[in-house]
Specification:
alpha/beta, about 15% strand
């Protein structure tokens, strides 16, 4: 059930008409207050402002889409991606989001033509509602992170990075439910490149799962909860992560906000909190690369009110 390299390569070919190949930027670290050079994978420039269309498209183009269309639950970014993919493929979409999902994300969902339902205070409540709706209508469920096609789609970030920056020895990836890091770790499995998970202290899903030996429910809170606030990691990604994620690092909210400000000040990039979380491992000192490391950071999302970063 976990994606192979062949699955990820097939996903890349299947999705090619629908997604952007996002740029890789090599830069000295001084502008970000670091003493190492960095490789940034600018996935915040993906369609809809996050990496999520990769998994959404791969799930949808791999299936026979029913007349009822698709249904999903999301903290915001995945919902926007499903809405965008559904519009491109000419099918209906219903998206269930927690009531606290920011307008920067719900506005995108509705702007792409999906029916938006605001349900509950947390992602899990929205997920239960989306699954009940799909059972009622016959819609195809597009899970935010725990489906093989979704993992394979997100793994194409790793495929592109390995082609465009083959020198990378370490790849830092933000983790919520784990679809992105699960796909990237599946791509790099068996290579010399280490994949490092970075999570907010307020949403320690993978760190807890690795400690306990299985996915378990965790607290959800903090500044990145709308994108990294799954209550526990997916079973599919955990099967990959337990063998192929080298380390799970936790960072405080203030470090995430600081990383957002640094990306804006140095590069004029508006990253949402979840999008800046991987960088925060470096800028806060929560993770120190070994001597000689060539570090890549996935900057994975931009859907936030710019005033919260630039002001």
């Amino acid at each position: 059930m976990t994606p192979s390299r062949q699955d990820i390569e097939a996903a890349a070919a299947r999705m090619a008409p629908h997604i952007r190949r996002t740029p890789v930027m090599r830069m000295g670290g001084a502008d970000l207050g670091l003493d190492i050079a960095l490789i940034l994978k600018l996935e915040l420039l993906q369609a809809t402002g996050s990496f999520k269309p990769r998994g959404a498209f791969n799930r949808m183009v791999s299936a026979t889409l029913p007349a009822a269309g698709v249904a999903t639950a999301s903290g915001g970014n995945h919902g926007a991606a499903v809405a965008y993919a559904a519009r491109a493929l000419g099918v209906k979409a219903e998206v269930f989001c927690p009531t606290g999902t920011p307008e920067a994300k719900t506005g995108r969902i509705e702007g792409y033509g999906a029916v938006l339902h605001r349900i509950g205070a947390a992602y899990d409540e929205a997920r239960v509602a989306s699954e009940a709706r799909a059972a009622e209508t016959g819609a195809l469920i597009v899970h935010a992170y725990d489906q093989p096609e979704v993992l394979a789609g997100q793994g194409t970030v790793g495929l592109e990075l390995s082609q465009d920056a083959p020198e990378a020895t370490h790849v830092l990836v933000a983790t919520g439910g784990g679809g992105l890091i699960g796909g990237i770790a599946a791509w790099y499995a068996g290579t010399g490149t280490q994949v490092i998970s970075v999570e907010p202290e307020a949403c320690p899903t993978l760190a807890t799962a690795l400690r306990e030996g299985r996915p378990v429910p965790c607290p959800v809170g903090g500044v990145a909860a709308d994108s990294l606030g799954a209550r526990q990691v997916g079973a599919l990604m955990f099967a990959v992560a337990k063998d192929h994620v080298a380390r799970a690092v936790l960072v405080p909210d203030e470090a995430i906000r600081d990383a957002q400000r640094r990306l804006w000040q140095a590069m004029r990039l508006v990253a949402e909190p979840g999008g800046a979380t991987a960088l925060a491992a470096l800028t806060s000192g929560a993770w120190t690369p070994p001597a000689g490391a060539r570090v890549a950071v996935v900057v994975c999302g931009s859907n936030t009110d710019p005033a919260t970063v630039t002001g």
